[in-house]
Design a protein that fits this description.
The protein is mainly alpha-helical. The protein has 15 helices and 6 strands. A hairpin with a 4-residue loop joins β5 and β6.
Length: 408
């Protein structure tokens, strides 16, 4: 499906402030296929903190399904706004408002009022514009941007400050504290850079005025995320007039897009609301919940502890799902390291991950477990998932947690 070589240009452009928990990026359309909406009360919503299962791991409760895609509305690569001279919505946006109101059960005046208040954001459009030159993918360069002293120092402090919380989330969900800390560190350097674009403006701009008309699925994705934002506002989970985030519409410490917030966010501190910007508890629980719903397996490493023969190109996995058995890998010369004793990962599907560095003319191969591919659903990039794992590994070691299951 998506490869690092295809995505690096976008990743380099989006860098620190794109939404990741998504299938959230501009290339992700897969979550737009289900049919229900948020429940009418908070006690029934996606955002409650469920009780532990007998196995001790969560989640036991299904995620909210994705809402149906909004068919009305279209994108034009212009710098114009969304309303006519008399203040009413332009015809295609009015049609969009009608459908959002009807399919999401939201009062039409509220939908119209929010859309009328949206402002075209020139900077968001500029940052999302396609690159005029091809960026040569470099795994080494990419990794250095995230596994670096600032994040390691801040990550150690963040872990120490929230050790009890992170241990609790780890015990309940089976997602290592190191992974949760690493994702928040990669996304926003632990809340230092969560974005100052008004989310309503960013999503309206990219949904109705996307700068790349050759890729209509991107603008469609942003229109659907805009509908999710409007629904979250209606349900009282956030204030669409004021909430800010990345230029791509991602929110808070973990950079959740509205659709992911709607489906996977957790009220970790039990205060009856979701605050991914100000509540570390909500952010940590939400990251763990997201990963579990996207295939994270407790007690497995991110990478299989193996030695890989050269060449491994014939075994490369091409998408976001592991497709190889341990038997096939072993038949092609992949061997377990002699210092490893936990071999539970051998019972799962695996993937041969290629980390390409074109400027250096090298490729680093690793064998990813289901947990590696769970991270790729957070951001559709092998580079991203491998950087999260490597940062998590370094953080675990420097905080005295060498047995965290992230080592390869």
């Amino acid at each position: 499906m998506f490869r690092p070589t295809q995505l690096l240009g976008l990743v380099l452009a989006i860098s620190l402030l794109t939404g990741c928990a998504t299938r959230t990026q501009a290339d992700s359309e897969a979550d737009q296929d289900a049919t229900t909406t948020l429940a009418d009360t908070k006690d029934q919503s996606c955002c409650d903190k469920p009780e532990p299962t007998r196995s001790g791991y969560l989640p036991d409760k299904p995620a909210q399904p994705a809402a149906p895609s909004i068919k009305a509305g279209q994108s034009q690569a212009t710098a114009s706004g969304f309303v006519q001279e008399d203040g009413s919505l332009k015809p295609d946006i009015q049609a969009y408002a009608d459908e959002v109101s009807r399919t999401r059960n939201i009062p039409q005046p509220l939908v119209e009022q929010l859309l009328q208040s949206a402002v075209y954001n020139k900077q968001a459009a500029k940052l999302m514009s396609p690159s005029k030159t091809r960026v040569r993918p470099s795994w080494v360069t990419y990794r250095k941007r995230f596994v670096e002293p600032i994040r390691l120092k801040a990550g150690k402090q963040f872990w120490q400050e929230h050790a009890e919380l992170l241990e609790q989330v780890q015990q309940e969900y089976g997602v290592p504290a190191a992974i949760i800390v690493s994702i928040i560190g990669v996304e926003t350097i632990f809340g230092r850079y969560t974005g100052d674009f008004r989310t309503l403006d960013a999503l309206a701009t990219l949904g109705f005025r996307h700068p790349d008309p050759a890729r209509p699925k991107r603008s469609q994705m942003f229109r659907d995320q805009l509908a999710d934002l409007i629904e979250l506002h209606h349900r009282g989970w956030l204030d669409a007039h004021t909430v800010t985030g990345s230029y791509a519409g991602a929110i808070g410490l973990p950079q959740f897009m509205p659709g992911s917030l709607r489906r996977f966010a957790i009220d970790g501190d039990g205060d009856g609301k979701i605050d991914l910007e100000g509540s570390v508890e909500d952010a940590a629980y939400s990251v763990a919940n997201y990963l579990r719903h996207h295939g994270w397996e407790p007690d497995l490493p991110v990478f299989a502890p193996v030695s890989i023969p050269d060449p491994a190109k014939q075994l490369e996995t091409k998408g976001l799902e592991p497709n190889l058995s341990w038997r096939k890998l072993h038949e092609h010369g992949v061997k377990t390291r002699t210092d490893q004793h936990n071999e539970r990962w051998q019972a799962h599907r695996l993937g041969m991950v290629d980390l390409v560095d074109e400027p250096r003319d090298t490729v680093e191969y690793r064998v990813g477990t289901p947990n590696f591919f769970a991270i790729t659903h957070y951001n559709h990039s092998y580079f991203y998932a491998a950087s999260v794992a490597d940062l998590a590994q370094q953080l675990a070691r420097q905080t005295g947690q060498p047995n965290m299951p992230v080592d390869r």
